Amino acid sequence: MAVPPTPFALFSTSFLPYSQTFVHDEVCAHTRYVADVFCKERLNADRFPYDPARIHTPGGPVQSGLYERLGTWPPFHRHFEQHDYALIHAHFGTGAVYALPYARRHKLPLVVTFHGNDVAALLGSQRYEPRRWRYVLRAPSIFQQADLMLAVSLELQELLADLSGRPQAVKLHHLGIDLTKFDGGGERSVGPPHVVMVGRFTEKKGLIYGLRAFAEARRQGRAARLTVAGGGELKSMLHRFVAEAGLGADVDFPGVLAAAEVAALMRTADVLMAPSVVARDHDREGSPITIREASASELPVLSTVHAGIPQLVEDGETGFLVPERNVPALADRLIALLDDAELRRAMGKAGRAKMEREFDLHKQVAELEAHYDAVRR
Prior knowledge:
alpha/beta; six-stranded parallel beta sheet; 16% strand; globular
């Protein structure tokens, strides 16, 4: 007789913004454990399907607002009293603010995965913003209460070890990718090479530097087209640059794409650019899902020496890495990729092999479940 999976409580501020595909993939890939989700609000249910009986919210907008202000919700405590959860896992340090009262009151092991900006928010000017005050105040308690802090990159592991003063409680854990959703079997672009950038239109994504590099490649006579998928506060600025640079015929902005649409885009593209940077408020990447998706799709990746990206991209093997904000270097490597289809194919195949070795979703979730086993002992 099969042993039923062990239930645990997963805290996520919202379940889920469109950019958090990695949380949904991880939750759905569990085999020995199963998550009951506790969150402020349910978002994008059509994009991220999950058993509604296992998703718990305070209710409507008024209740969600109270939960957000209070940081706790009495009915959630009653639910914990009625269910035998093995542990609590919070995604993002900000999500751990909500998990902390339940870990304390119900004496459950607490695991927290840190993804990037949740650490940056404790270092830069963000910590002075009113929206961050509660997190900044609770962070020392999170660092002391957590039985295990998982960092998605080596950089975050080092920062967390220093911030928490508990390096022994911090471990590196790479987020996996569902390799079955991505492949290199599609038809690559017919005609000029197709370059893509995918992500939220925020400063840390460095999209403006990618656009400038693309403009330089076109100025030097390279035929190419660019798709910039996503949305966000910098949309007007990016559109304005394209118009002023005379690139309107070469650049497409399709908006925010669903996961299946991103996979389809990757199958027909030739190069992914991910020119990430540390933003002025210290916002930074952790381990960008887009890069894993591109490599799984056999795309060469042109990116920067930033955060966890050097663990994802092997410079000269699966793509190219350049310094942040270095448009001439970005343009030079982009031109090299546009000029050499065989180089693109070789790097793409090497990237897929790397994902299979190091970032397979099911292997990484098995590793995560082993971490769960360890904190329960």
